[in-house]
Amino acid sequence: MIKGTVKIDEEICKGCELCIVACPQGSLGLSSHINTHGYRYVELIKDNCTGCINCAIVCPEPAITVYRQPKVAKSKVA
Amino acid sequence: MSQDNNSNNEPRLMKGNEALAEAAIRAGIHAYFGYPITPQSEILEYFTREMPKRGRVVVQAESELAAINMVYGAAGAGARVMTSSSSPGISLMQEGISYIASAQLPCLIVNVNRGGPGLGTIQPSQGDYWQAVKGGGHGDYHSIVLAPASVQEMADFVFDAFRLAEKYRNPSFILADGALGQMMEKVILPTEGSLPYPDKNWATVGMGERKERNIITSLFIQPEEMEKVNLRLQEKYKAMQKEVRFESILTEDADILLVAYGLGARICQKVVELGREKDIKIGLLRPITLYPFPKDEIARLASRVQSVLVVEMNAGQMVEDVALAVNGQCPVNFTGRMGGMIASPEEVFQKVEAIVEKQTLTLK
Amino acid sequence: MENKIPEEFEVVYHKPATLTDTPLHYCPGCGHGIVHKILMEVVDELNIQDKTVGVAPVGCSVFAYNYMNIDMQEAAHGRASAVATGIKRVLPDRYVFSYQGDGDLAAIGTAETIHTVNRGENILMIFINNAIYGMTGGQMAPTTLLGQVTATSPFGRESVTMGNPLKITDLVAMLPGAYYVSRHSIFTSNAIRKLKKAITKSFEYQKEKKGTCFIEVVSNCPSGWKMTPVESMEWIEEHMLPIYPLGDLKVPKVESKAAMDKPN
Fold first, then answer.
1. Which domain CATH number covers B258?
2. B364 lies in some domain
3. Which of C90, C94, C118, C125 is the best residue to mutate to test the B interface, defined by the most B CB atoms within 10 Å of its own CB?
4. pLDDT digit of tens for each residue in chain C (264 aa)?
5. Distance, in angstroms, between C191 CA and closest chain A CA?
6. The domain containing residue B316 runs over which residues?
7. Under 8 Å CB-to-CB from A53, ≥6 apart: which residues?
8. Cβ-nearest to C115 among B31, B66, B74
9. How many domains does chain B have?
10. Which of A17, A57, A64 comes nearest C192 by C-beta?
């Protein structure tokens, strides 16, 4: 299983929750904290992100950067 | 009428509308966007015949509303561009002109003034003076307004209008009338290519090598910013005052000063003659720029003459600006025919005689 | 949950450089943000940032030029396609697009919309249809659905006094000047992917100079519709798409095989 992760800009996020719904892994959820604009921002709530970028695609701000493990397993460089 | 249009500057007989259009092509316009309306449809027609031949753009838009917004777009993209219409169509363009003025875009709008208000008549009138000079559209802005009085000036003023528009990044108006548009006179057309293109580094041509994008807008939603924009515009209009132009005919020794522009001035030229024949020293001040208005010259002359008669083809519009400039130094009278009627020189001269009698003027 | 990104991970998605750093002023979950992003991704990927000029409308996206890092002009209400016409006619080799809402394009700008396409202007017209006037406080739009409650249809839109939802895209598709007409949406990530393909195709078609590309985006207005962003996407699927079905309304004709096989 490809592993991925996301970085969500907490100040830019408006807590619209579109990414939470778009995520097939259910990895995202609303924080209990609010940012300086008064929005509850979204954060990773599980460790099972696959880096599919669905969340980034639906984000209007856009507040999400997506990272993914490289596809080909790199052989160890001597 | 097929002519050797590209060629040199021999005098030829042309209709005002067509002389203006040909002059615009020689002034190097990139595009014309317009809509038919009497009495200026020949301008659009001339362009649809000539522009494709000479590699320029012409579009008959779906309305004057569309045309002025095409002008906005093309002017914002750095092109030398114009439109034309007549009174009701110019009314439709007012929103666009306000936007153009606020976004500081150079362009030329030609109004071949017809009788109004409303759908009116197709006969000539000067009923759009206020619309052209005082704004017409919303907000604090001014267009540069030139008023030709001959077919020659219909051609020459196109060059002046673009030169001023581009110098000040402002819309320019040529305020003509139905008679000037339709009449045929001798004209020597300006030389093609003799109006250079200025650098327009503010235009939206695509960023290219630029790091900062260019934005053309008239929206400044913060009041502090909007005020700054307005102050900048006002500074510009102050600077424009030095572009004032007028023609003086026998004003220095005049007892009665006529003030008239465009066709009104043509009529008044004859009135000056009639007066001088009868030993009434009539002079004529013909504003060429209606904005900026020759208020200083009028104020100066008002201190030397006994009475002023403003002759217009409307219910009395420029007379207010004249009265402001005269500032009580002498009486300011008015005569005007409306609805497309044109006074004869004799008719106007009778008004002069009436003034001499009524005001018991002691003539020099 | 603190998130440390492992060193060997690659960035597979980040905000395109063609969007500025200015935070968007749109309501949470607004489709404008999604469309701006996709549009600018395409401009970035096609490498045409230096040759693109956009026209912003009057509406919530009146400040689009604060977010899109390209030369842009602000148009008067309804006139964006006329402004775009002016730009494209004098700069025929640039990529020109207009971006309008449902009031701009289908109410006050109807004449400009029809005639721009009728002339086959070689631009991309983007039509954001969210069945409401967002910026001015949620009034009825030409595309508002029958029965839909808005600030000016407080008892629900009824056709007798207020007309029917105007399917302007269908009208425009009938014109010979229309080259590519397609209706998309932003209600799921798949729909957004398809929208991106359509925008990409449109910019490529612009080079062919064969007519107008017109893309309607069935979008949302959580504030005007008085629901959460997530609910608004469901509302699009349940209520908007039956009236404004997704798909191509007009596609360029494919060259015949014989013509393609002809030697130069």
1. 3.40.50.920
2. no
3. C90
4. 456 888 899 999 999 999 999 999 999 999 999 999 999 999 999 999 999 999 999 999 999 999 999 999 999 999 999 999 999 999 999 999 999 999 999 999 999 999 999 999 999 999 999 999 999 999 999 999 999 999 999 999 999 999 999 999 999 999 999 999 999 999 999 999 999 999 999 999 999 999 999 999 999 999 999 999 999 999 999 999 999 999 999 999 875 455 555 554
5. 10
6. 246-358
7. A66, C12, C13
8. B66
9. 2
10. A57
Chains A and B are in contact, defined as 3 or more C-beta pairs closer than 8 angstroms: no
With an 8 Å Cβ cutoff, is A38 touching chain C? no
State the pairing for strand pair B107-113/B171-177.
Answer: parallel
Q: Inspect the interface and report whether the beta carbons of C230 and A4 lie closer than 8 Å.
A: no
pLDDT per position as a tens digit, B178-207: 999 999 999 999 999 999 999 999 999 999
Q: Which chains touch C (3 or more CB pairs under 8 A)?
A: A, B
Residues B48, B94 within the same domain: yes
Cα–Cα distance list, A5 to A42, C37, C204 (Å): 13, 21, 34
CA C61 to chain B, closest CA, distance in angstroms equals 12
Find tokens 């403003």 and name the residue: B310
The neighbours of chain B, by the rule of 3 or more Cβ pairs under 8 Å, are C
Q: Does B215 touch chain C (CB under 8 A)?
A: yes
| Domain end among B225, B242, B259 | B242
Spans of chain B below 50 pLDDT? 1-3
Helices (runs of H) and strands (runs of E) counted in chain A: 2, 4
Q: Do C6 and A22 touch (CB under 8 A)?
A: no
Per-residue model confidence (pLDDT) at position B1: 38
Nearest to C230 among A5, A18, A68 (CB): A18
In which element (H, E) is residue C213 found?
A: strand C212-218
Burial of C263 (0-12, 13-18, 19+ CB in 10 A): exposed
- In chain B, which ranges are E strands? 12-15, 31-34, 57-60, 81-85, 107-113, 144-146, 171-177, 184-187, 215-216, 246-249, 256-259, 282-287, 289-291, 307-312, 332-336
pTM of the model: 0.92
B196 with B285, same domain: the answer is no
C-interface mutation test, from B29, B68, B69, most C Cβ less than 10 A away: B69
Tell me if A58 and C230 make a contact (CB, 8 A cut-off). Answer: no
> Within this chain, do residues B177 and B33 fall inside the same structural domain, yes or no?
yes
Same domain, B208 and B287: no
Asked if C79 and B78 come within 8 Å (Cβ–Cβ), the reply is no
Answer yes or no: is B194 within a domain. yes
How far, rounded to the nearest angstrom, does the alpha carbon of residue A27 sit from its chain's CA centroid? Answer: 8
Q: Domain ends where: B242, B258, B288?
A: B242
Domains and their CATH numbers in chain C:
31-134+141-261 (3.40.50.970)
CATH number, domain at B25? 3.40.50.970
Pick from C8, C13, C187 the residue to mutate for testing the A interface (most A CBs within 10 Å).
C13
Q: Do B44 and B182 belong together in one domain?
A: yes
Indicate whether B224 and B297 sit together in one domain: no
Taking an 8 Å cut-off on Cβ atoms, the answer to whether C71 and B215 are in contact is: yes
Query: Under an 8 A CB cutoff, do A21 and C23 touch?
Result: no
Asked if B65 reaches chain C (Cβ–Cβ under 8 Å), the answer is yes
* Facing residue for C53 by CB, picked from B31, B77, B95: B77
Query: Six-digit token pair at C259?
Result: 């013509």
Residues B110-165: tens digit of each pLDDT: 999 999 999 999 999 999 999 999 989 999 999 999 999 999 999 999 999 999 99
Residue partners of C70: CB distance under 8 A and separation at least 6: B206, B207, B213, C18, C40, C43, C49, C52, C53, C54
C114 touches chain B (CB under 8 A): yes
Asked whether the beta carbons of C151 and C138 are under 8 A apart, the reply is yes
Same domain flag for B51 and B128: yes
B59 and B111, same domain (yes or no): yes
Residue C119 and residue B59: Cβ atoms within 8 Å?
A: yes
The answer to whether residue B363 sits within a structural domain is no
A40 reaches C (C-beta below 8 A): no
| One-letter amino acid for residue C166 of the chain | L
| Residue B263 contacts residue B286 (beta carbons within 8 Å) | no
